[in-house]
Amino acid sequence: MRLSELDVGPLVGHTTGSTVRIWGRTAGANQRLAVRIGLATGTGGVAWQDSKVVPTWPAFDRTGVAEFQALTPGMVYTYQAAAADGNSAVHPDDPAWSTLGVPAEQLPRTCTFPAVGEPAVTRFVLGSCNHEPIHKPAPDSLFGALHALATQNRHLEYLVHQTEKPALHAMYVLMKQRKIHPDFLLMTGDQVYADHPPFRILAPGH
User: Fold this and answer.
1) What is the pTM of this model?
2) Which 8-state DSSP code applies to residue 114?
3) How far apart are the first and last CA of the chain?
4) Long-range contacts of 38-44 (CB under 8 A, 24+ apart)
5) Residue 10 is inside which H or E element, if any?
6) Tell me: the pLDDT tens digits for 132-143?
7) Which helix (H) or strand (E) holds 116?
8) What is the 3-state secondary structure of 82-109?
9) For residue 112, how many other CB atoms are within 10 A of its CB?
10) pLDDT by residue (tens digit) across 10-32?
11) Can you say how many angstroms the Cα of residue 54 is from the centroid of all Cα atoms in its chain?
């Protein structure tokens, strides 16, 4: 089995206390998505636990989704994804993974949610093209609703960072520096444009 870099991804999708979905896009039309997941060890390595090879679909622009189940709630997992040539399975410790040349400390990580009913603080980053002053949002706006929710709920932390740099880049830098630790990101706004007809056929002012 030959493994190569993905064209886009990997990205973490729907996550629960015991499941994680990993999304990726391959460059080749006949390639499949291979993903492995495990726990970091105290010696700088990773104890790989499971791996999956799933189809990528031309109708969805050569993307695929691998779902891992029976994971431990509230646990940080390391994962790695690649494009796979062929239809056979890839063991999580297969030597083919090492050909990608990514050190263990540079591999992406994700965290499962706490167990249902277990008290925990949830932190998230919200990205939106809504040009609104997020430090003083209108009460009836999306940001205003989230700000009020975070104020009233001690288990919710609403992260806001003021900077001259583009907001999403600033959040990326802060996460890279481990200064903020969000559990997930909500990227909102673009779906509205995707649902619209082409802008060239809209009347002026609409």
Assistant:
1) 0.70
2) P
3) 53
4) 38/77, 38/78, 38/79, 38/92, 39/75, 39/76, 39/77, 39/78, 40/76, 40/78, 40/104, 40/109, 44/104, 44/105
5) strand 8-15
6) 555 566 666 666
7) none
8) EEEECCCCCCCCCHHHHHHCCCHHHCCE
9) 20
10) 999 899 999 999 999 999 888 99
11) 18
